[in-house]
Write a structure and sequence with these properties.
Layout: E1 14-23, E2 28-36, H1 42-55, E3 59-75, H2 79-89, H3 93-101, E4 108-117, E5 120-128, H4 135-152, E6 157-160, H5 174-178, E7 181-190, H6 192-199, H7 203-221, H8 231-241, H9 249-252, E8 256-262, E9 265-275, H10 287-295, H11 306-330, H12 335-354
Parallel strand pairs: 1-3
Antiparallel strand pairs: 1-2, 3-5, 3-6, 3-7, 4-5, 7-9, 8-9
Helix pairs in contact: 1-6, 1-11, 3-4, 7-11, 8-11
Length: 355
């Protein structure tokens, strides 16, 4: 079997939904959101959520933290030396910062966490990577740190540049606890009348469904640091439309919905601790990606990192709109399946006629 060297382009349907009104330190204004997906109902559903939020004054969103990680694995002769190494490393963070600066103008060392299993040393390095998602930047910086470690501690042996303690594109608890990507929270308060008119349900029904479906249901299924209906749908559509590494929806979709009553109104939030996005780097050279990033206002001249922060905020708001709309639909028997059948049959008919 021969590897195909000629690049081809996969065509995925894409539409703009919204606009959605967003306010916060990174984003202020009405934003159209591009989503690339084969799931036709995602567009009108997310649009309904955006329309509902606009009628409620818009979404407020903020980034609480950001970092990209890479973990390495080294092997010591015994546990005594392993302990001596990790104790010594805490005294050399300035040296590590200097090494990292040599690998990139933008990479900055933030912190390091360690785990020891027998004589194996797992080092989880954390970096700020500005407007890049940061996978390669973090790996290169970690590689240089490993080179330095093996010289400084010659009794250590190299095992791997990635030890799964990162944790990259896998379901884990560590990313939600220590952080990987951008930690974003988005919220909206929806008046009862708006909820009833645009979502065809009540605040009480959405609050109860979130408890019984998202919280209890996820506990029963063994969900790990996650309680949501379909974060992955909006994230995937947004990631594909903006040139992101789509596999990052695995940790990105580990998020939590919190819904509550504020008086008679619905308070609705989404928390996404692991949104991994960038506005430069691999995948950002395609014309449609550049155009979408332009529409989102993420190609502006700003301080390093601000465009990526803006992109993460918008991603979280897209998730909120789609999550809100789906939960509302699921409070009404038959609505979800009915809408899927109507929209997908309509799309199939349009595709057939256009062919």
């Amino acid at each position: 079997m021969r590897w195909q060297t000629t690049e081809q382009v996969a065509i995925i349907p894409m539409r703009l939904v919204g606009p959605v009104k967003i306010s916060g330190p990174e984003v202020e204004g009405d934003i159209l959101i591009p989503l690339a997906t084969f799931e036709t109902p995602l567009w009108p559903s997310t649009h309904r959520g955006a329309k509902t939020c606009n009628q409620s004054g818009g979404i407020k969103a903020i980034i609480l933290d950001e970092r990209m990680t890479r973990s390495v694995v080294l092997e010591a002769p015994n546990i005594t030396i392993a302990h001596e190494v990790i104790t010594s490393l805490q005294q050399h963070k300035d040296v590590m910062q200097a090494i990292i600066k040599e690998t990139s103008r933008f990479a900055r060392f933030l912190d390091m966490h360690t785990q020891v299993v027998g004589n194996l040393i797992f080092l989880r390095f954390e970096f700020n990577t500005a407007d890049a998602a940061g996978h390669n930047m973090a790996t290169l910086a970690s590689e240089r740190l490993v080179d330095w470690l093996l010289i400084r501690y010659p009794e250590l042996d190299y095992v791997s540049i990635s030890g799964n303690y990162c944790s990259d594109k896998k379901v884990s608890a560590v990313n939600g606890i220590l952080g990987r990507g951008k930690y974003v929270v988005a919220e909206v308060t929806i008046p009862r009348a708006v909820c009833q008119r645009f979502l065809k349900t009540t605040p009480e029904k959405i609050v109860q469904l979130n408890i019984k479906k998202n919280l209890i249901g996820n506990i029963l299924s063994g969900g790990l640091r996650t309680a949501n209906a379909h974060f992955a749908n909006m994230l995937l559509g947004f990631y594909l439309a903006t040139g992101q590494d789509a596999a990052n929806i695995i940790e990105g979709s580990q998020g939590i919905v919190h819904a509550d009553l504020h008086g008679e109104d619905l308070y609705f939030t989404v928390t996404l601790p692991n949104i991994i996005v960038g506005t430069i780097g691999s995948g950002k050279t395609y014309d449609f990606v550049r155009e979408n990033l332009r529409i989102l206002g993420c190609l502006e001249e700003r301080e390093p990192g601000q465009n990526a922060r803006r992109l993460a905020i918008i991603a979280a708001c897209a998730v909120l709109c789609g999550e809100l709309s789906l939960l509302a639909a699921q409070t009404n028997p038959g609505e979800l399946m009915r809408s899927h059948l109507q929209l997908e049959r309509k799309k199939q008919s349009e595709d057939k006629n256009s062919g």
